[in-house]
Design brief:
This protein is mostly helical. It is built from 15 helices and no strands. The longest helix has 38 residues.
Length: 346
Amino acid sequence: MNNRNLWVDYGKAIGIVLVVYGHVVRGLLAAGIIDDHILFHRLVDSVIYSFHMPLFFFLSGLFFWHSMNSRGASGVFFSKIDTVFYPFVIWSILQGSIEALLSSYTNGDVSFAQVFSLLWSPRAQFWFLYALFLIFTLSVLLYRRSVMFLPLLVAGAVIYIFQSRGPNFFVFNFIAQNFVFFAFGVWFNSIRESVESRAGVVAAFSGLAFVALEYWFHGVLGMRYEERGAASLLVAMNAILFVVSACMVLARKPVAWVVTLGALSMPIYLMHILAGSGIRVILSKFFGIDSVFVHILAGCLIGLVLPVIAAKILQAMGIKWLYEAPAWMSLDKRRQRRLAMTPRTL
C-alpha cells in the first residue's frame, strides 16, 4: 500500500480514536462517574465534535469520484447498500437489542420499539451510517462531471450555513449538516497533489489556525459544536485540513498499529459502544471502581482493541456478514453477475 492510501488510514485512525474517547467520556458523564471538571470534559467534547465526524464524511468523499468512474452510478449505489446500509440495519438491531435487554445495568432506557424504529429514527452511533447512505444516494444523482465538484461544494456550504432556515426534517438535517464535508472530500482531489507536496507547511499553518479557531469559536464566541453556521464550518474545514496534512507527514514513516486502527475503523465504529459500555459496567458495578482516569483509559483501550481482535478473528474464520451483505443477498454482486452474463457487442 502506498503513502497516498496510508495517510487516509491515519486519518481514519485519528477519527476513530476520537470517536471512542468521546463516547466513553459521554457514558461516564451520563453514569455520574465524572462529576468533577465537568466543564473541562464538555469543552473537550465540543472541540472533538466540531470536526471528527466531518472528517469521516470528508474521507468517505475522497474516493467517490474514482468509484463513479470505475463502477458507475448504479454500481456505487448498490455497493453502498451492501457496505453501509446493511451494517446499519444489522448493528442497529444487534446493539439496540442488547441495550434493551441490559437497560437495568446501563445508562440508557432503550425499548424494542425504539430499536425497530431505525428507518425513520436512527439511534446511537449508527446515525452516521444512515446519513452517509443518504449522502451517497444523493451524490450518485448529482455528480456527473468533474466540473461540478466546486459548485456542489459551494452549494453544500450555503445549505450548511443556512440550514436553520430549511425544513426541520431528519433527512434534510442529515444532508444539510454533512454533505458539505463529503463534497469537500470529492473536491479535495483537485488540490490533493499540491497539498501532499507541501504537507509539512500546510500542517504547520493549519495547526496554528486550529488552535486559534477553536479558541475563537469556544472562548470568544462562547459557542458549541451544535451551533452550526459559518463559524462552525470554518472551524471544521480547517481542522480537516490540519488532520489530513499532518497524516500525510506521519504516513511517510507508517506505524503498523495506527494503520490497523484506520483499516479496521468500521468494525471499531460498529462495536466500540458495546465494548466500552461493557467495561464501564464491569468496573463500576462489579468492582466498585470509580476512578475517572481508570475508566477513560480502560474504556478507550477496550473500545479500540476488542473490536480489532473480534474483526481479526472473524476475518480468519471467513465471516463477513456482520460487516457487509453476504453474497446471496448482495445487490452489487447480483448486478455484477448480470453484467457478466450480458452479451457484449463490438
